[in-house]
Design goal:
Largest sheet: 9 strands, mixed
CATH class of the largest domain: Mainly Alpha
Helix content: 40-55%
Strand content: 5-15%
Number of domains: 2
Order of helices and strands: EEHHEHEHEEEHEEHEHHEHHHHHHHHHH
Strand order of the largest sheet: 1-2-9-8-3-4-7-6-5
Distance between the termini: 51 Å
CATH topology of the largest domain: cca-adding enzyme, domain 2
Number of helices: 18
Length: 353
């Protein structure tokens, strides 16, 4: 392990970052997405520093295959746009660049200034950008060709020791972005990380901030959870921490009601079966995810679950209401309902869909 230093005002060396080499972190460059490598190399050929960042580095260190490869660079959005014709600048408060390939999008962000606060459009240096990351496990910078990881905040050791710590001061991390509370629980359950005491206390104190979150962001987080392979433990923790009543209030209502014991048992079992399907390598679409989320409500709670013919429009409306404020596309809810109605007899016999 090497150390990157800078010099203080009085001329003394100041440690900035640990540098982990390929022999130390063990990441195989062949596990890095080909399109992400292309983006990195073009940025560097254009005279810019560029790194894979965030969850992709975390997953690579853990020996997992990342779902997405995000990149951070010192190139401003306009410059990135000029380097990549197949790109588009998005965002208002903080501009990002999406680079489009045949079947994926590589998201490129410009280093943020520490003074930016929240997601405002102020750019800075990598030493500032790292302080805008949420958790230490997501604050590593990986350069695949050189094979090095830059670690400014001790994130590499936190990954190895299974600790979830904040980079942003704990009194600010959730007030700036309440969705980070959901992500903390998701990371804990999917990566085996232990949420440290200060973070736990802040989650319990700030649950009500979830009311500020737009439906679009809650929808995005919901489906990340449903596709995580750890849906059941994440939902159990969201409920335990008091976050679920803000994320999916109708679900939380039925889980809290004493007269809905059968629903409670079947609901978590259904989420567990969704996880089992993913573990078995089964292809599971968003409609099937919605079906697992809503089956027990539709068949145990809703009046549309009675033995008489189920009115499709009524059932559709009730399913949409059940998962509000999440708002998936209507076509996905419709497909989920069709799937459930086909499985209705099976459910009545086995409680499975």
């Amino acid at each position: 392990m090497r150390i990157r230093y800078s010099t203080s005002e009085d001329g003394k060396p100041v440690r900035q970052a640990y540098i982990y080499t390929r022999d130390e972190h063990g990441i195989d460059r062949n596990n890095v997405d080909v399109e992400a490598l292309k983006v990195l190399r073009r940025l560097r050929a254009g005279g810019h520093n560029a790194y894979i960042v965030g969850g992709a580095v975390r997953d690579l260190v853990l020996g997992r295959t990342p779902k997405d490869f995000d990149i951070a660079t010192d190139a401003p959005p306009g410059r990135i746009r000029k380097l990549f014709r197949n790109s588009r600048i998005i965002g208002k408060r903080f501009r990002l660049v999406h680079i489009f390939f045949r079947d994926q999008i590589i998201e490129v962000s410009t280093f943020r200034a520490e003074e930016s606060g929240g997601f405002n459009n102020v750019f800075g240096a990598i030493e500032e950008d790292v302080k805008r990351r949420d958790f230490t496990i997501n604050a590593l910078y990986f350069e695949p060709d050189e094979g090095i990881i830059l670690d400014y905040v001790g994130g590499y050791e936190d990954i190895r020791s299974g600790k979830l710590k904040s980079v942003i001061p704990v009194e600010r991390i959730f007030t700036e972005d309440p969705v980070r509370m959901v992500r903390a629980i998701k990371y804990a359950q999917t990566g085996g990380f232990k949420i440290q005491g200060p973070l736990k206390r802040q989650i319990k104190r700030n649950c009500e901030l979830m009311e500020q979150c737009p439906a679009s962001r809650l929808t995005e987080e919901l489906f990340k959870i449903l596709s995580s392979g750890a849906t059941r433990p994440i939902f159990e923790q969201l409920h335990q921490y008091g976050l679920l009543k803000y994320m999916l209030p109708s679900v939380a209502f039925f889980l809290e009601g004493r007269k809905f014991n059968e629903f409670q048992n079947r609901f978590f079992e259904s989420l567990g079966r969704l996880d089992e399907r993913r573990a078995a390598g089964e292809e599971v679409g968003r409609d099937i995810e919605i079906a697992h989320l809503t089956a027990d409500f539709l068949f145990l709670i809703s009046e549309s679950g009675k033995e008489q013919r189920v009115p499709f429009k009524e059932a559709f409306t009730e399913m949409k209401q059940f998962i509000r404020p999440a708002s998936p596309p209507n076509k996905d809810v419709e497909r989920a309902l069709v799937h459930l109605l086909r499985k209705r007899k099976t459910y009545r016999k086995t409680a499975h869909i």
